[in-house]
Backbone:
């Protein structure tokens, strides 16, 4: 009888303990209301508290870390790592231990560690009323629990800095490469249709040039403008705009790329914890691109779709005299659709080389031309729609021919007060002392001159000049081989086709002028459009942000080598057009 009373009393004590635990749990649940896991579960007819609910609650109470929902217990390790939490194989106090098995797996909160063993607070216990208890286990990864059914996989560390990328290593996709940048969901291309703001574009031929930096980040250049992907104003706030800007070595122009499964990537600007984001996860043309808090949505997942850059050629020159043809021949290059032949002539008084004659978009592997007596330097750019690569440089001499002698041709002139001539910009990032769009070194100061024809070195690189970026160079007007019977004539006057304003900017478009090499645009609030000249390759120009409501005046003129292809000239300025900035 006495034993029966004792057993009844023991049962009553267990019931009272269970009730007290219920009351305590209700209080704790109110304090940690953001717990994503249900508290109770029934397994094998036994109802107890979930291990995931209790591990989440202990992490929140002991460290202040509110974990996201990480799935079943056995999935916590991998999912926490994908959310940016540090994981590892060493047990420390105040971390989460993860076990795997053939079922849901198990998690517990590690309260302390001593002599290779850990004291764990855990839920999901079927041997304790309410399912919550403590246990002392081996802290060695790969060991089994006491019931021999679950294997210790590793630990999730909660005392990190709180940055989602702390435990992630930026991917290394190569030192340099060309690619489309595409929002994975909807396969929407990221571009800059107006040459400044970055948004979803209908143009799938917009290419980006990625240049890896010593810290593992990338500077990402737009191949059309040569400008870099930039967080406007260095913003670190969600909603900060992304646009194109001249590279200045700033952290808001450097992007870390973090790999995800199935080829998806997150792009983080170095100056913040935000990521590249398409507004409202839109795919419509013109949808703005910005930065935002990382939230693992499709708006932040991008594909980097690589394309091969143009290969290199090896150039040889068979020099004629001033009355016979000089022939330039080059080897065919891989992934190339056309070739630009660049010839410069030495100024004997200064020792410098100036642009003399160019042949654009050649589809063969040779060209011939008659050159006046003098010393020359030539190379060939192998081009495709988004990149070009320079060949070796060949120096050669054209002798004075016998018989009828043509008068020496003058080197290209520059109109007084005009800006100096510029070559297409070197490939972004290859010359650290210059920004994209500036004139690269000609190489005249780096090597001695030769008075006789020089055979190529056999290398594909040109002294003093790195592989070239296409930018707008491949869009320059194509010129035919010059005929010296053709008289010198003037360049036609430019005609403005349209001038529109949008988002505090103005976009000017004009008609192509025959034999034009580049164009100059002037704009200001003055009625004559007087102001600083902007050199443009192509037939359109978009301004930086202007003052809203102000009226701006624009004009444009062409520069090139009309007629016999030897003497440079400017066209007359176009008629002045005006627009009110919206």
Residues:
């Amino acid at each position: 009888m006495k034993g029966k009373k004792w057993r009844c009393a023991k049962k009553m004590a267990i019931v009272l303990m269970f009730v007290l635990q219920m009351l305590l749990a209700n209080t704790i649940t109110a304090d940690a209301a953001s717990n994503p896991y249900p508290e109770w579960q029934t397994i094998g007819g036994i109802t107890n508290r979930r291990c995931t609910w209790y591990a989440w609650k202990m992490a929140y109470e002991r460290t202040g870390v509110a974990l996201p929902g990480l799935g079943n217990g056995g999935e916590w390790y991998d999912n926490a790592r994908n959310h940016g939490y540090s994981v590892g194989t060493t047990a420390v106090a105040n971390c989460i231990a993860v076990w795997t098995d053939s079922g849901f797996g198990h998690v517990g909160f590690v309260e302390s560690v001593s002599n290779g063993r850990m004291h764990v607070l855990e839920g999901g216990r079927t041997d304790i009323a309410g399912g919550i208890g403590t246990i002392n286990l081996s802290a060695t990864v790969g060991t089994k629990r006491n019931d021999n059914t679950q294997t210790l996989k590793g630990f999730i560390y909660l005392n990190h800095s709180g940055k989602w990328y702390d435990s992630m290593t930026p991917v290394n996709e190569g030192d340099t490469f060309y690619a489309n940048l595409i929002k994975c969901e909807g396969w929407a291309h990221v571009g800059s249709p107006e040459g400044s703001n970055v948004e979803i574009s209908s143009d799938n031929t917009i290419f980006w040039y990625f240049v890896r930096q010593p810290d593992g980040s990338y500077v990402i250049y737009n191949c059309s403008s040569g400008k870099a992907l930039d967080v406007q104003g260095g913003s670190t706030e969600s909603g900060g705009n992304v646009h194109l800007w001249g590279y200045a070595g700033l952290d808001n122009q450097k992007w870390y790329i973090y790999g995800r499964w199935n080829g998806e990537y997150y792009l983080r600007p170095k100056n913040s914890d935000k990521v590249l984001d398409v507004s409202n996860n839109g795919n419509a043309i013109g949808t703005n691109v910005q930065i935002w808090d990382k939230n693992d949505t499709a708006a932040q997942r991008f594909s980097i779709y690589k394309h091969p850059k143009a290969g290199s050629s090896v150039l040889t020159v068979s020099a004629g005299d001033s009355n016979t043809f000089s022939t330039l021949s080059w080897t065919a290059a891989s992934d190339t659709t056309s070739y630009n032949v660049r010839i410069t002539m030495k100024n004997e008084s200064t020792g410098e080389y100036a642009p003399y004659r160019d042949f654009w978009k050649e589809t063969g592997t040779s060209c011939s031309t008659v050159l006046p007596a003098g010393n020359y330097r030539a190379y060939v750019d192998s081009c495709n729609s988004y990149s070009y690569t320079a060949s070796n440089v060949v120096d050669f001499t054209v002798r004075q021919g016998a018989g009828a002698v043509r008068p020496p041709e003058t080197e290209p002139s520059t109109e007084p007060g005009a800006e100096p001539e510029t070559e297409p910009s070197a490939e972004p990032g290859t010359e650290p002392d210059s920004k994209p769009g500036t004139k690269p070194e000609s190489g005249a100061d780096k090597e001695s001159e030769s008075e006789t024809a020089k055979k190529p070195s056999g290398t594909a690189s040109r002294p003093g000049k790195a592989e070239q970026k296409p930018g707008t160079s491949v869009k320059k007007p194509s010129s035919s081989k010059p005929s010296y019977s053709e008289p010198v004539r003037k360049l036609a006057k430019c005609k403005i086709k349209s001038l529109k304003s949008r988002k505090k900017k103005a976009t000017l478009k004009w008609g192509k002028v025959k034999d034009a090499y580049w164009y100059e645009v002037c704009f200001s609030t003055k009625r004559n459009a007087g102001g600083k000249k902007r050199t443009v390759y192509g037939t359109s120009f978009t301004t930086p942000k202007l003052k809203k409501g102000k009226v701006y005046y624009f004009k444009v003129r062409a520069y090139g080598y009309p007629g016999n292809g030897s003497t440079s000239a400017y066209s007359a300025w176009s008629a002045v057009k005006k627009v009110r900035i919206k």
In short: The chain has four domains: 32-157, 176-307, 313-476, 496-580. Residues 14-32, 404-488 have pLDDT under 50 and may be disordered. The CA atoms of residues 438 and 458 lie 28 Å apart. Helices lie at 2-31, 51-63, 76-82.
